[in-house]
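Why do we bother with holo predictions? Because pocket geometry can differ from the apo form. Keep that in mind while you read this record for 6-O-phosphono-beta-D-glucopyranose.
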Amino acid sequence: MKSTKQPQPTVFIIFGGTGDLAWRKLAPALYNLYLDGWMPEHFSIIGTGRTQLSDDQFREKLLEGIDQFSRSGKAKADQWAIFSKNIYYQVSDLKDAKTYHELGARIESYEAEWNEKADLIYYLAVAPNFFPIIADNIAKKCPKEGMDRTRIVIEKPFGHDLESAKALNKQLQGIFDETQIYRIDHYLGKETVQNIMAFRFANALLEPIWNRNYIDHVQISVTEQLGVEDRGGYYDGAGAMRDMVQNHILQLLCLIAMEPPINLDADEIRNRRVDVLRSMRRFDADAIRFSAVRGQYGHGWIEGKEVPGYREEPEVNPESNTETFAAVKFFVDNWRWQDVPFYLRTGKHLNQSASVISIQFKNIPHSIFPPEAAENWQQNRLVFSIQPEMSIRLQMQAKRPGLDMTLNPVDLVFDYSGTYHGKPPEAYETLLLDTMMGDQTLFMRSDQVEAAWELIMPILHAWESKKSLSFPNYPAGSWGPENAEALIAQDGFHWFTLPVNGKHG
Ligand code: BG6
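The structure, written out:
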């Protein structure tokens, strides 16, 4: 985990420099790190892409992204003038050795100018089929003695299935040491997600009740109002399980279910996270029918606007069998969690955009209150709201003021916006700084990625081998397919939602 040190001089090379990620996320993140004083004294950012652009044109493009997406608002002219001097652009063909020789020469020229060696961060914001090509070329063509100062950052998707993830790991590990490979899962960088560990392990109160004796079930719900937008080409080959469950949602589950680590070392924490994945119950073909639900959105309405069904989206197969919704009931087979269900759900074009983890505690063993006292009986719940509301809520029963004894659920709330001023850093700020600092805590280790694939492969196989006859099975703007309600209702629970902008949806 980060200290207050500053990173070493750094050359930051973004493959896919003209892409969406660089524009929306990476440039605003680097700029905010600069504003907050986290960038090293000497740094360069080189964007690469096929488009012919001058340095100035590239800077303009990044500035547009910063002006639109930076948490600190539009860039200030004087700050931008200094920051942008460190940005360069190189037209590149990723398959051509010349690209890498040119990059190598640039790196050497910056180092000569600074009179010191730099850490080299290669950020692969490109389609996954380029990962091995780039990795190979970096190793062969970039300055040899720079290899031990090199880090490679890999965006998701990391593999398409277990086999391809293993092959990619093998390939990367044949070139780089595991300590040089940074597999991004941007959920791990979110402020509220990082706080799950702080909240669990910095408070003595929770650990004694954080187990099967007190916890009834856990829900992790990551719902989105957005559809696939212009990403149909990618999404139709992926689906909700690959896009969200294999990575983000399983990582959230790991943070909730992990054992206390003995310290904050990156590998200690990653060991505890991977232990969870390894303890998770495997599905046999029969169990999948009762434990996993898939859905695909049809035509519907989002916030009063009519939207087409998934099969009508650009670059999507009109007979697509791809799921845009997934709900799964998992179990973690260990002493702490035996028989406690973990319900996960995620989907596109749902009623609300909200990422919420709800831990529901068991009911009281004996009630001293007459039935009429409990108007709205609600078992205790601890709710981590990751976004859009950033809060932690403990839901308790309390006496409603009045002369009679009537109980009502009330929330004890820790709300970021009421407690702290200013917007917290974006996930990419944290993750880029960690990469510069060489801290891998919030990145996926090879065994984690593989364990997550291994867990979901039986579900993917079952779904891919049998076309869904009911697709589309939920209208855009709803809460997903009815079967997802049944998945949790059959155990006597219901999906928990927090009101967004005062509405429950
Ligand atoms: C990405 C997925 O990893 O996460 C997208 O590919 C999804 O499909 C996005 O929309 C959600 O991230 P966030 O930070 O907006 O919740």
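The domain at 10-155 is CATH 3.40.50.720 (Rossmann fold).
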